[in-house]
Structures are given as structure tokens and as C-alpha cells.
Known about the structure:
Layout: E1 19-24, H1 28-39, E2 44-47, H2 56-59, H3 80-85, H4 95-108, E3 115-116, E4 121-127, E5 132-137, E6 142-150, E7 172-175, E8 190-194, H5 198-207, E9 213-218, E10 225-226, H6 234-252, H7 272-285, H8 288-292, H9 302-319, H10 323-329, E11 343-344, H11 347-350, E12 356-360, E13 368-369, E14 373-376, E15 379-382, E16 385-388, H12 397-400, E17 403-405, H13 412-415, E18 434-436, H14 447-467, H15 477-492, H16 525-537
Parallel strand pairs: 1-2, 1-6, 2-3, 4-17, 6-18, 7-16, 8-9, 8-16, 9-12, 10-11
Antiparallel strand pairs: 4-5, 5-6, 13-14, 14-15
Helix pairs in contact: 1-14, 14-16
Amino acid sequence: xxxxxxxASPKHAAAGVDYDAIIVGAGFSGLGMLHHLNQLGLRSHVFxxxxxxxxTWYWNRYPGARTDSEFxxxxxxxxxxxxxxxxxxxxxxxxxxxxxxxxxxxxxxELKQDISFNTKITRAEYDEDRNLWxxxxxxxxxxxxxxxxxxxxxLSAPSTPKIKGIESFRGQVYQTAxxxxxxxxxxxxxxxxxxxxxxxxxIVPVIAxxxxxxxxxxxxxxxxxxxxxxxxxxxxMSKIRTNYDDIHKQAVSxxxxxxxxxxxxxxxxxxxxxxxxxxxxxWKEGGFHFMLETFNxxxxxxxxxxxxxxxIRRKIRETVKDPLKAELLCPKDYPFNGKRPPGGHGYYxxxxxxxxxxxxxxxxxxxxxxxxxxxxxxxxxxIDVLIFATGFDAxxxxxxxxxxxxxDGLVLRDKWKDGLRTNMGLAVxxxxxxxxxxxxxxxxxxLPVAIQEAVGWVSRAxxxxxxxxxxxxxxxxxxxxxxxxxxxxxxxxxxMAQGGSAHAWFLGANIPxxxxxxxxxxxxxxxxxxxxxxxxxxGFRGFHEGALATA
Length: 551
Ligand code: N01
């Protein structure tokens, strides 16, 4: 990575500030936001820590990284120019293709000229006297703007556990979320992998045929759903192109923001034969179809959930030949959906290879990393490479790892120390003229659709403020309390509340010391989008009650 800072030449912003809006992050969120603000005629600028666009898809370059969602709803539909010209090649696009897509979006929408790459933001402080944000880069430069928008991502602050002895290890250590751009040659190596969430599950089958030995250190097994990937033929792509608007419309009226059929019966309400038939069909269709298109109560009813959990365990036992390995791979003490289920691409099959070893660390975790390997109890596993696929400080990590300072010196991470408070996950009381694209307490949903909705909503809010001469858009404390209550209510009504041992990131339960609460809204993306629309069409009720001044 070079240290060159590429900053675009200034255009004209409102008097007294460098930019009208500063956006942090050049992934789906930042690019979408920049495009929408450009369309409003604002002078906006994006600061991005990476050397290119892509966000999540820039950083997560580990072997096997690909979407768990299908291409036609894992993309933007707002730009006809982009959707008419771009062609996806696989049902579940791989990381290089998603990255190329985002580069294409940036080129087509002429966004790059307004992005400074290689520029990490370390602090953003609201200046009450001047009603502007002062944003500081790691290089010490300071820029000002009236609006400050985070597009820093929800699963973008990697979490690596501090394991005793790690600094003594003489081999190579990698994190999936910061995988080297130039790749890593794992051929013939003895590799240890910690973590079997979506990242670990994707890397296993891809590196297994290359490495000498792969030791998978598993603490909690996952419910991995078959994906069934295949090529996107031209006629499928053309059909999608002509239907993008309908697909988006269907997605925003779905609880998970996907254009899926909504099942009308519960798993417990049909005969065992019918249940098996429907599950089998969903399994063949693959991925989120199993979770969302089979029955309508897998996330809310224990009995129905138990049928799904049992179906997956039977699939694991059918696939994995060694019965001991199969049993270890079967999740038994938390329900399907208790963690976000990953999509598999030959994950269970990989354990039939002789060079793939499953090391159960359920009871006591890893005792230590030594100079030459990993010790688990009495057993010492010799390895050359150690890979951490240990997840993220999700939803809040990017926002709390830098200093975001609002009114009266209030720091965002301190505000959230004992519990989250946001207005619809979009804004925070005490932080005027600051918006979050996919902040905490936004829906648990397919992200590109949720991002498209959020950037549209924020640009409407900014336009509303400009047109109505509202100098200060600040969420009310009452609206935050009401939203926190609703997030808790909706989450508690789901199976996800029983994460149990699952350490789910959406509960903050994977990060030691983080308050355990729903970091996402489980009440349905459709419900959330309708509520956002209602707020917008009622003069952004709850979002500028704290306004002190008019322009
Ligand atoms: O992270 P995770 P992830 N010792 O938090 C283990 C999205 N995503 O990066 O379950 C030993 O799910 C931990 O064990 P346990 C997607 O939303 C999407 O895989 O806590 N193990 C777990 O196995 C996903 O849900 C895609 O017991 C330790 C793993 O590390 C989210 O990102 C691809 C440990 C972490 O799993 C996060 O997925 C990738 C320790 N000390 C990611 N600490 C696609 O859509 C943690 N673990 C393609």
C-alpha cells in the first residue's frame, strides 16, 4: 500500500466549509451516498482508508470469499446506466467480481474524482458555534463540512481474539478481513483456521485441496445451508435487467429485503411428508431460500425451528462420512438462525478429505499459540500458517473505534457504553447533521437493498433540511427511546433472542464486554422501510425536533 494521498481538486461548497458533506467509506454505502448527494448538487467528498473502492469487498479477499446472496438483489438498481451495462457471471458472485462491479459503479457514475483514497478518518467533531463537522485524517489534515455521513460498514471492524502466546508464533498469521492484496501461497503448508462463521465456512473448501493439512479449530458449529452456485446465462441476465425495478419493489416489501415468495404456512402446521418435501425443495434451491421461502415461522416458533435444525443435522450426517466428525459438526445447543446461517459451497464435503482435520475446542478454547503451532489441552498441533476468521465488532465497531464527538463533547462510543440509542439506526441525539448508512438498529436484511433505501432516505432528509432552511437536523431523545423499545420488542419475539451459546454478532455477544442487546432490527426490513417513508413524508418527524437554529 503506498502512502500517497489522492485528494480531488476542490469544487465550490457552501461558504465557510470545505465540503457540503463528508462521507466516510467507499463501499456500497459510501458510493451510493456520494451519487445521491451529487444528484442534489452538493459538493461532497468521500474519505476511504483503502487504496480503492469496494469497502467490505476491497478488504475481504480471502480465498472463497463470495456473496451469500444472489446477484440480482445484491446490487444497486437505482442507476439505469449501471444496470444496463453490467453483466454478472455467477449466481453468487465471488469477491473479485463484486469488487469489479463497485469499481464499475464508481467509473460509470463518475465518483472517483470525489474520493480521497488511503485516507483513514480518526476523528470527527461537531463544532456547535459554527454548526459544522470538523473531520481529521490519520495524516493530521482537517476538513470541514455541514453534513457528516458514515458509510463505514456494519461488518468492517475485524475482531481478532488475543490468544496467549500469539506473538511467539514463528509462522505466518492472517485475518480473513484484511487478507493481503497480493494473495497468499498456501500450497503444501500446514494451515490452522480459527472460526467457522460465514468467512471460515467459505475458505475451508477452497484451500483444502491446496494445503498439506488443514486444522479447523471449531468452538461452535454452524448450520451451513447448501448454496447451489451456477453460471448466469445471457437470457437470465437480460430478464433481470428488464425487471430491476420490480425486483427492487418486491425486495423492499420483504422482511429480509430480498425478492422472495413469502411462505404462508408454518413448518409445524403441515404433515411430516409435506414438511420434508418443502425443506428438500428449499435446500435444493439453496442459500437464503431455505431459510426464508420454506415456512413462515422458522425464526419465531421453537417447534418449527427444531424441524429445520433437525433437517440440517440430517444433511450433515448424510454428507460427512466420519461419524465422529459429523457429530462434532452438528450444532445441537442453539437453534437454526441463532447465528446468521452461512451458505456452503462444499463445506461439509471438505471434511471427507483426509487432510482436513476438525479440532474441537468447545470445552476450553485454545490454550495457547506456541512458536510452532497451537496447543489445545494435551494436544499440540504443528502448523506453518494460522488464519483468523473470527468475525467483526459488528454494527458499532467502525463507529466506536474512531472518535465521533457530538454536542458538548459527547463521544459516540460513550453514549453507547451501556446500550444503543439511535433514531431508526440513521441518526443520534446529540450528534446534529450526522447520518449513518446502516447504523446499529437498522434491519437484519440483505444489505445492498437496505443501503439503497438508506442513501435515498438520507439524501431526501438533507434536501428537506436545505429546502426548509433547517440548519440543524438532530434526532430527538424521545424518538430514540421509542426506537430502542421497538428494537427490543421485535428482537425478543424471535428465535434469535435464544442465541444461547451462539455468540451471535447481531447480539453483540461475540465481543467480550459489549452490552448484549439486539444490534439490528428484527421486526422486518419491510416494516422498517414503511416507517422510514412515513417519517419522511411527515416532515422528518423526530429528526429535527432538537433543531436550534434555522439558516
Ligand atoms: O464471523 P462470525 P464471520 N476462539 O462472527 C470464532 C458476514 N459475512 O466473519 O461461534 C475460537 O460469524 C467464532 O466461534 P463462536 C455475515 O453476515 C458474509 O465468519 O463464537 N473461535 C465463530 O466460529 C456473517 O454472519 C459473507 O464460538 C473463535 C467465528 O470465529 C458475518 O459477516 C462472508 C474465537 C466468527 O464467526 C460474520 O462472519 C463472510 C476464539 N477466541 C462474512 N473468537 C458473505 O455473505 C471467535 N471465534 C459471503
